[in-house]
TrEMBL record:
Keywords: Membrane, Transmembrane, Transmembrane helix. This is DUF1468 domain-containing protein. Signal peptide: none annotated. Residues 11-152 form the DUF1468 domain. Pfam families: TctB. It comes from Rhodoferax lacus.
Length: 162
């Protein structure tokens, strides 16, 4: 077995690992069928699609030659760190952290923090653009989740909404 594209091979493996993980996680829930979907239906289908996609990508990496061999470069740790940090901060802010006395900060503040932190992952950071993006995402999330879907999510920090 000779790798003809290292990037595609590793990407395909990542897709397959994620797909199998989703499908395995879905097995703990009721699957149902297409007419009456259970809570495990969507993760199972998503896992199957990701796995099949991964198989095709790995096959392509083994069969089709590329000019440079699709060599992997070094890891871009800064973007990875900021994106992971942004998601962790979003989760902590939206739900609060009782162990340190942090109340839930609501959807709007959480989205603003997420966007500002994630934007630091890029090469360029412009406050005006980042804040405009955060505003648009917060407004879109509010309209989607609160107005249209009528989900019970705190919009503002607990000390403001009280």
């Amino acid at each position: 077995m000779h790798l003809k594209n290292q990037k595609d091979f590793l990407s395909g493996l990542l897709f397959m690992v994620c797909g199998v993980s989703f499908a395995w996680g879905a097995s703990r829930y009721s699957i149902g069928n297409a007419a009456r979907m259970g809570p495990g239906y969507f993760p199972l289908v998503l896992g199957a699609v990701l796995t099949v996609l991964g198989v095709f990508i790995v096959f392509k990496a083994l069969v089709f030659e590329t000019e440079d061999g699709g060599r992997m470069g070094g890891w871009a740790w800064r973007p990875v760190g900021f994106v992971v940090l942004a998601n962790v901060v979003f989760g902590v802010l939206i739900g609060g952290l009782a162990s340190v006395g942090l109340p839930p900060m609501g959807l709007v503040a959480s989205i603003f923090a997420l966007v500002v932190i994630a934007a630091r992952a890029g090469q360029e950071f412009r406050w005006k653009e980042v804040l405009l993006l955060a505003l648009v995402l917060a407004l879109g999330s509010y309209l989607t989740f609160i107005v249209l879907l009528k989900l019970q999510i705190a919009v503002w920090p607990a000390f403001v909404a009280a």
